[in-house]
Each structure stands twice: as structure tokens, then as C-alpha cells.
């Protein structure tokens, strides 16, 4: 009887992380930007049927990159959780932080489970506050890690290039037109082959 093939836990987690990152990188990027009156999502998306950006609840938005069926399942689960919590308690009890924590638990459990492949997704969850300093933006990665975002962030596709452009050109308090123009330029920014994106290539939403 032959011995089973052994893979160390460290190698297993590394392989699962590499698998998820490669799947996410194949998609197009999504940008989130805080502007003077709220939070802006801009995604490169030419599909009229498959959306990367959605409203989850009052003042709370969701954006995703990666496998559509996987992040669509997460979006639907988030809507149901928010509706249930708001109905059972109070609408003010539904928060962006609470939804981000729920998504983090789900993604972390799936990533750590050896019985199924990790989700190839990254998410933004944003909640617009009464004032700009109360806005909340969270980025969730495939392994359930959560980061608190200030100002702007990019995920998916050529995220590093777009993020570099935003760092060099973003300033707080932008109006909506300037924020959209900045996000579109960031999505098209590429050191080797820059592109100019048109409105037909973009999905845009504001909170």
C-alpha cells in the first residue's frame, strides 16, 4: 500500500492563494473613489446584462471583480442578510461594516476549506455617511482579509498600474465629473499601452 502524497499546510495555502489571484487578475478592474458628495464606483464593463456594481441596502453599495457567478452569489446573500437584519431589528442596524464582516467570514471559510476551491473574487463594500468623514469603504480579498480604504482603491486586472495613477493624481474633495474622469483615466492607464475608455465601456454608480 503506497503512502499518501503529503503537501504542507503552507504550500497548500500558497497554491490556493496563487490560484485565486490568477483568476482575479484575468478580469477588468474596478475603481472606488471618495468625492465631495459621496462614494463613486467605476468599472470597466461592456456588458449590459452582467453588472459588477450593485446597491445592497440604503446607503450601502457593492462592487466586485473575478468570477461573475461567485460574486453574484455573494451579492444576493448580502442583500438577503441586510433585508433580514433591517426587518428583524431596525434599518439603522444594517451597516457596511457588518456586511463586510459577514463577507469576510464567508470568504475566509471557503478559502481555508480543503474540500472546495477558493472563490476567485475581490469585493468593495461602501457605506456613505452623513458627512464625508463618516464614509466607510472596505476591500475584501479572496481569503477573507479586510482593509479599510481611505480616498481611493483599485482591484482586479491591472490594479497596480491604475492605483499608481490614482496616487499621483487624486486629491480630496473632487466634484463628481472630475472623479469620474480621474477613475476612467486610471482604468485606461498602462505604461506600455495606454487606452482611452469611453462611456460605453464603463459601468458607473454613486452613493
From TrEMBL:
InterPro entries: Ntn_hydrolases_N (IPR029055), Proteasome_alpha (IPR050115), Proteasome_alpha-type (IPR023332), Proteasome_asu_bac (IPR022296), Proteasome_sua/b (IPR001353). GO terms for molecular function: threonine-type endopeptidase activity. One of its GO terms (biological process) is proteolysis involved in protein catabolic process. Its EC number is 3.4.25.1. Pfam families: Proteasome. Coiled coil: none annotated. Keywords: Cytoplasm, Hydrolase, Proteasome. One of its GO terms (cellular component) is proteasome core complex, alpha-subunit complex. Gene3D superfamilies: Glutamine Phosphoribosylpyrophosphate, subunit 1, domain 1 (3.60.20.10). The keyword Cytoplasm applies. PROSITE patterns: PROTEASOME_ALPHA_2. The keyword Cytoplasm applies. PANTHER family: PROTEASOME SUBUNIT ALPHA/BETA. Belongs to the peptidase T1A family. This is Proteasome subunit alpha. The gene is prcA.
Amino acid at each position: 500500500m503506497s503512502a499518501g502524497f503529503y503537501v504542507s499546510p503552507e504550500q497548500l495555502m500558497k497554491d490556493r492563494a496563487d490560484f485565486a489571484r490568477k483568476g482575479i487578475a484575468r478580469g477588468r478592474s474596478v475603481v472606488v473613489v471618495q468625492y465631495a458628495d459621496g462614494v463613486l464606483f467605476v468599472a470597466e464593463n461592456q456588458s449590459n446584462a452582467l453588472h459588477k456594481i450593485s446597491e445592497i441596502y440604503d446607503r450601502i453599495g457593492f462592487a466586485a471583480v473575478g468570477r461573475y457567478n461567485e460574486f453574484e452569489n455573494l451579492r444576493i446573500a448580502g442583500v438577503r442578510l441586510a433585508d433580514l437584519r433591517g426587518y428583524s431589528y431596525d434599518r439603522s442596524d444594517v451597516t457596511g461594516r457588518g456586511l463586510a464582516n459577514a463577507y469576510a467570514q464567508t470568504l475566509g471559510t471557503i478559502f481555508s476549506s480543503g474540500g472546495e476551491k477558493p472563490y476567485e473574487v475581490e469585493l468593495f463594500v461602501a457605506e456613505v455617511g452623513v458627512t464625508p468623514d463618516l464614509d466607510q469603504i472596505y476591500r475584501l480579498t479572496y481569503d477573507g482579509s479586510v482593509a479599510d480604504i481611505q480616498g481611493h482603491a483599485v482591484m482586479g486586472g491591472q490594479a497596480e498600474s491604475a492605483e499608481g495613477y490614482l496616487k499621483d493624481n487624486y486629491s480630496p474633495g473632487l466634484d463628481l465629473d472630475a472623479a469620474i474622469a480621474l477613475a476612467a483615466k486610471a482604468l485606461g492607464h498602462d505604461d506600455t499601452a495606454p487606452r482611452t475608455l469611453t462611456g460605453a465601456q464603463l459601468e458607473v454608480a454613486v452613493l
